[in-house]
Amino acid sequence: MAVQLPTLEVENELFANGIRYVIGCDEVGRGAMAGPVSVGMAVIDAGAGAFPDGLRDSKLLSEKRREALAPLAADWVLYSAVGEASAAEVDALGITACLGLAGKRALLALHAAGADIAASVVLLDGSQDWLNPALASPLRVQTRIKADRDCASVAAASVIAKVHRDHQMIAAHEEHPHFGWAGNKGYGSPAHMGAIAEHGPTELHRVSWIKTEPR
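Structure for Ribonuclease, as requested:
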């Protein structure tokens, strides 16, 4: 089966309707047992031009290919940012609220870098707008199922966020090697779950998802 390639069709339609900027948005780490949930955002305008060759939804790329594409994607877009919510915040607030919190933090980083948020539409992967409930002033958000597969701006955000979060989990692996985070990136692989049962969770685990006390 041929792999669906992203395009700029959705973004260009928004530009044709008078939108100045599109902010592609995707989350990473939603289903992980450990580590933050991260939200990537990538801003483009009508002059974005051709996106990097091979850009895809991060889930469709090998780790090596993601590593190569992340800096190219960051160079292609006008601005990019990754916002996070910690495992402790996921425990306290729930995953949906933390998606919004991480997204809000990404928007603040974009604003600080000079992005015109008010003149943008956020193109959000999925069917649920989890971003606006976290904001004091609502933004124009367009949800789209499989936007990370179909829309180049969202694919760029996906790759940038995935590589950013992966680097954090690889670094955390050095302190907690028995959980295998360099390989599983905090997701619930059998080896990871077995290590939790043997050693107990750490401060980086989402304890409410495990139902045991951290060590």
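Residues 9-164 form a domain with the Nucleotidyltransferase; domain 5 fold (CATH 3.30.420.10).
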